[in-house]
User: Fold MerR family transcriptional regulator from Actinomycetospora aurantiaca.
Amino acid sequence: MRVGELSRRSGVSVASIKYYLREGLLPAGERTGPNQAAYGDDHLRRLRMIRALIDVGGLSVVATRDVLAAVDDPELPLFVALGRASGTTTAPEPSTDQDEAWEAAERALAAEVDARGWQVSDQNPAWATAVGVLATYARLGDEDLAGQLGLYMTTMEEVAEQEVAAVVDRGDRARTVEGVVVGTVLGDTLLGAVRRLAQQHQSLKLLGETPTHPRG
Amino acid sequence: MRVGELSRRSGVSVASIKYYLREGLLPAGERTGPNQAAYGDDHLRRLRMIRALIDVGGLSVVATRDVLAAVDDPELPLFVALGRASGTTTAPEPSTDQDEAWEAAERALAAEVDARGWQVSDQNPAWATAVGVLATYARLGDEDLAGQLGLYMTTMEEVAEQEVAAVVDRGDRARTVEGVVVGTVLGDTLLGAVRRLAQQHQSLKLLGETPTHPRG
DNA sequence: CGTGATTAGATAGCGGCACTGTCCGAACAA
DNA sequence: TTGTTCGGACAGTGCCGCTATCTAATCACG
Assistant:
């Protein structure tokens, strides 16, 4: 398959494919001549993953490159790349404000983590993200929102247990890793959307109203 | 307070404040002369919220403007603006692919929603986002990931119940709405980070290892 | 075998976003 | 009075994610 067919089958323009090749998101095709290369089904699959991570997962091109590099490198711990990816998406800058609010937030999170016996590293980018959100709550005077943290941890503990269990032994190692990446990145999006729907449902339930535009 | 002090107290440059004023994120100060205006504590609070939504929540300036407009307008249904906001963050384009995968995904979601008796509108942007993720799973051949949907819905139903209950009757209506917005937008970020931490914890638990960089 | 489409690769350009810098004339602070 | 700050307008900047254009080589077809 040459680039034209790859473009037609993936729905991605040739120019964009060349761009992804340049940026290292897509491995080069197999050379068949000085200015000719052949692409396979794995290129097509990779291309679809790229579009999913960028369009649906909301990752930047650079974050996508890093995540995919971790997929390709069996040595690299996957959650590091995933943390980096989510960091890019949701916490553009945890800021260097190592101020009072930040330290109080970190203590609060550490207490909850210890209470549950979680084994987590504060090198995990998600740690700084969580602390940053908690600190922001405090700075905004919305400290009561931090009260949801325990609930979030309890529910995510169960969710993560199911997710990790579902992923162990999927057969092909490469495909497994791909599944983890897709499930993690797109799972954030799905979880957020489901939360929004649940909030609407619960709002209506609590206020005893019916939606303005019911489904169907 | 004039713009210089507002800048110093908020940590936002004067140029950026002027930019937010132009873009309608921040209401104009009270005029005290032909080229003089005074800002109050509510401007300072609004400015801090803007930075939180942009930096921590990852919203764009336009999305932030829309969300804040909904905060200011008691008529506008809040979840519409919030849906739009999250849509901007996580699902840049659900695409117009009303193809087979999309329709199958929509049927699957509708079935789950009906089974739980949720009252939700498919006008809610979160609906399209959720369907889009499900359809993407299918196109990538990761259909098994869709199996997590039920788990996500069950857990988010409980989370949303607590969140909605915590928000009802907070006293001041304007402050309540602000709390909802902050809790919803920043809550997405927090929930994602907690999920990442829980995944690390569960991975280590299942594989019986200890983190490379334990906290402390 | 010729002719037009396609290719790899390199480089330049574009449009959007989130600011940032500069200038003006007025006003405030010493 | 003199230096600083102000509001307002507008041009410019840097980054990002492509997109367009070019060249020389190769391919597909009659």
